[in-house]
């Protein structure tokens, strides 16, 4: 409020400037950073009310749109609005067949900086009275690596004598590691040398009756995208890739 004279006043309200939010994809999983149930009211946009009701840290964007009975475009627009105000964050879908690897932030976890290990225990332990030791939590978090799926990681610890599933919510452990900057998701891609050559020469055109997976073989589409858009499992994708009419050795699956 800025008084100009005895009869006039200028009312101004300053708003903070936020960076443009990142793109929201159908295979992203939004995680709430606040309790929407405590702040949502009837004056909110109807689409927003429907969308936030299904943000649980598990549902991907496409599933949220389906559950909320809104179009995918409207759901992504609502989520970008929430991202703009820093009320949600985006993660990747969790699968036991996925790979995760340590980030530099893992050093803070090993050093238990700011009590991060106790915070992790409170979030991931299934039974509050059976808290997993700090040593074991650090061992679990630091044993993720490139080329080893969560299932293989789980099996390795079970063979070593620790029944992880009995004491730890694995999805929450991975989620905690990603949010805190201790882990990152290693995505899976497929590339076809024949298809890349066709793209380079401008000869790659959709063919009537052609295999719908071909468009994903340029090395730019993660398996999460294929799983979401084609409603296929990782195993089904691999089987369909094997049946593509391409020369032997043309397809390469890689992680990054």
UniProtKB/TrEMBL annotation:
One of its GO terms (molecular function) is GTPase activator activity. InterPro entries: NPR2-like. GO terms for biological process: negative regulation of TORC1 signaling; positive regulation of autophagy. GO terms for cellular component: GATOR1 complex; vacuolar membrane. Belongs to the NPR2 family. Pfam families: NPR2. This is Nitrogen permease regulator 2.
